[in-house]
Design brief:
The chain is an alpha/beta fold. Helices cover about 40% and strands about 20% of the residues. The chain contains 26 helices and 21 strands.
């Protein structure tokens, strides 16, 4: 008998170089262990067939179906001018629908012999549309005869695993490769502590791997998935629990506000009382600031729930305690906006050292990359001497040249736009690690907060301040009902006639070069809506100013304008000197113009759910009701339209973030997410497995507090090292 390959054995030694190369390049699988953890996406039953009626467009699919008929046609073409061209059309069915397969040229001979009516097979290919019918062109296929010995062996049992596959490597080939390495599953070292596994009635890891790849019954699959979900949840939560434990060991200066200081004076000036939520969250933050290890807190708040006010009170408490506070914004527009609103809220309390400044006032300085040299020198000096208690800026704040007198608190606005390295660099600016408050207006479901931001404590602001108006949202189907779009522009004119202002948002700017390769191809109407370039700010602004909004004051704002020009446009709009602002998503976060009551989002289907929710939050910030119109050319039955209907139907950001996550799938929860690397979560679904994640978090906290270095659990250490390769380890380090 051949020796069983070890789990860290490279696949090229076991499967051969060609297969191993495809697995490494297209699926990120390098070792025997990687392949064992490449789980089936779903299972087909021999007796059942896939739903052909539900096939997704443009995706690589594997289906099990029966041949209904097969016809060979001849035709004339450039390559075969005498009518010798051959095309084989095979129709397959599963009872729910029919699907056409096409083969051309020399590729017709083998399928013509093998794909006879009544034959059952697995077919894999990319779903496309031809003549308004779904088809697979040149699909790979594997007959399900069950007579040849190898096929019987390979397809043993009634359940056929369907693996995440690629055009270069079909699901059944991955299945055969797994057959080769499956004996190695016996070597798998179990990361779960024995007491936890036994206490929860989970099967051992080798058994779980055998059952997920070669199940005999549906109960086998359930047992395996339950076990493998626990592995993922628990190992990840142990990583986060160790982060929290390490943070709790770091020293920090406790910052307790002095009575009757700046914070008290500020609270006395406020023309309103704090909401119950703001008081509760402030109390949580002040309790953290008073401890001698760094606060790491995530502040989630619906758009317009008053997060900035809560953050400002924390900053003033730190200034009262003799420290400095820095607020980081993702864009210059937003940094300027925050600086303006903070100085307005503070009044003479922000004029420390100036004529007319109140007693005990501090200085609030702005620091951005585009400031003039003199202003910048002045700001840097104020930071180094401690003259400025509060600084607001972009990532220009973390350059080497910037020195703080005593940095006590860092507030990061809009976490998802702010790189891990940048937060890390800012942390190094304090004599001891500063306290950290991360704010986001993108509501994050509780499970995701536990998984992605598991090293941060979470506070949620879910009440809107009194006086905020509701926002009505409607989908405007521009292609089906053009008169709805005309009515939208009338509504904009009505808002302006009532003394209000409007945003029009477009997905792109419009000064990009058009791609000549994309021109000149004939497209179907479905393609036209899908493939035409997104509407652009510069084009739409011109069309509106000459057409439906003629006579109104229309201005433009986008990310490639000079910073001074951007600021000037925002100031004019805020002052009511422009009626309509046509903009890109630069207005997505933080822009506050209470008189803006309506927003029209063009090509709304090109934006994500949470982005639409963010954008919508820019209106209805005053006492007049808000209106948001989502314009789209997508057909009614499309997934894009369903997404827009969901946004129009609720103002609850947490509900929308659930929908968003279900549609996007999780990506890589450890921040690896971007470009096509596989999710580190293979069976755990962040939305559906809320209970497992919450329980795993508790178990992990108990394990880590009892044994922070995991000396008694070597198998868990090994699993942790595999999860936290260098990149992810750094991600957690810099959290």
């Amino acid at each position: 008998m051949d020796p069983v390959p070890a789990l860290d054995e490279p696949l090229k030694k076991v499967l051969g170089p060609a297969t191993a190369k495809v697995m490494a390049e297209h699926l990120g699988l390098h070792t025997v262990g990687d392949l064992l953890h490449h789980y089936p996406r779903r299972y087909e039953e021999r007796g059942q067939l896939t739903h052909l009626a539900d096939l997704p467009m443009d995706e690589h699919v594997t289906v099990v179906a029966q041949v209904a008929d097969a016809r060979l046609h001849t035709f004339a073409s450039a390559k075969a001018p005498r009518g010798k061209g051959q095309r084989l059309e095979v129709t397959i069915t599963d009872g729910s629908g029919r699907l056409q397969l096409v083969f051309f040229g020399a590729g017709v001979h083998k399928p013509h012999k093998e794909l006879l009516p009544g034959t059952r097979a697995m077919f894999a290919g990319k779903v496309s549309v031809f003549n308004r019918r779904l088809q697979l062109a040149h699909p790979a296929y594997e007959l399900l005869r069950g007579d040849a010995e190898e096929t019987v062996e390979t397809w043993a049992g009634a359940l056929i695993p369907i693996y995440p596959a690629t055009a270069k490597l079909e699901s059944w080939k991955i299945g055969k490769a797994l057959q080769t390495v499956l004996p190695s599953a016996q070597e798998a070292v179990d990361p779960l502590p024995e007491s936890l596994r036994a206490g929860r009635g989970l099967v051992a890891l080798p058994e779980a791997l055998l059952k997920i790849h070669r199940p005999h019954t549906k109960a086998d699959i359930e047992d395996a998935r339950a076990r493998l979900k626990w592995d993922e949840a628990f190992v990840l939560q142990v990583a986060l629990a160790r982060r929290r434990h390490a943070d709790a060991q770091l020293p920090a200066v406790a910052r307790r506000p002095k009575p009757d200081g700046l914070l008290t004076a500020f609270d006395d000036r406020l023309p309103f009382t704090l909401t119950e939520g703001q008081q509760k969250v402030s109390a949580e933050i002040f309790a953290d600031l008073a401890t001698e290890h760094p606060m790491h807190r995530l502040l989630q708040g619906e758009v317009g729930s008053g997060k900035t006010l809560v953050a400002l009170r924390a900053m003033l408490a730190v200034v009262d305690a003799g420290g400095q506070a820095a607020m980081l914004a993702p864009t210059e527009v937003l940094a300027q906006q925050h600086h303006r609103s903070v100085t307005e809220m503070m009044g003479e309390l922000a004029e420390g050292g100036m004529l007319g400044g109140a007693d005990g006032a501090t200085k609030v300085v702005l620091l951005t990359g585009s400031m003039g040299a003199a202003a910048r020198r002045h700001a840097l000096l104020d930071l180094a001497t401690g003259e400025a208690g509060v600084v607001i800026g972009t990532h220009a704040l973390i350059e080497d040249k910037v020195q703080f007198h005593d940095l006590g608190l860092v507030v990061v606005d809009e976490q998802h736009r702010f790189g891990v390295e940048q937060r890390d660099a800012l942390r190094g600016k304090g004599k001891q690690p500063p306290h950290l408050l991360v704010m986001t207006a993108t509501p994050i479901p509780r499970t995701v907060a536990m998984t992605v931001f598991g090293d941060l404590e979470t506070s949620v602001l879910d009440q809107l301040p009194a006086g905020r108006s509701p926002i009505a949202s409607h989908v405007v189907p521009a292609a089906d009902k053009p008169h709805f779009l005309a009515r939208a522009w009338e509504r904009v004119r009505e808002e302006v006639a009532n003394g209000h202002q409007t945003y029009v948002v477009c997905p792109r700017i419009g000064d990009e070069e058009d791609d000549p390769k994309k021109a000149g191809r004939k497209k179907s109407p479905e393609d036209e809506a899908e493939k035409r370039p997104p509407l652009a700010v510069l084009d739409i602004a011109e069309q509106l100013a000459k057409g439906p909004l003629r006579g109104l004051r229309v201005e433009v704002l986008h990310g490639r304008m000079q910073p001074d020009d951007k600021d000037a446009v925002m100031r004019r709009f805020a002052a009511g000197e422009a009626d309509v602002l046509v903009a890109t998503t630069v207005i997505e976060v933080g822009v506050n113009v209470p008189n803006a009551t309506a927003m029209v989002i063009m090509d709304a289907d090109r934006f994500g759910v949470s982005q639409l929710h963010q954008l919508r939050g820019r209106v209805g910030r005053g006492s007049a009701p808000g209106l948001c119109l989502l314009v789209t050319e997508m057909p009614e039955a499309s997934a894009a339209r369903q997404r827009l209907n969901a946004v129009a139907s609720t103002l609850d950001g947490f509900e929308l973030s659930r929908i968003d996550l279900e549609q996007r799938r999780e990506g890589d929860v450890l921040g690896q997410a971007q470009s096509g690397t596989r999710s580190s979560l293979r069976v755990l679904a962040v939305i559906d497995d809320e209970e497992i994640i919450a329980e795993a978090r508790e178990e992990a906290a108990a394990v880590v507090s009892a044994d922070p270095d995991l000396t008694g659990l070597p198998a868990l250490r090994t699993a942790l090292d595999a999860l936290l390769d260098d990149e992810r380890e750094q991600y957690l380090e810099k959290g």
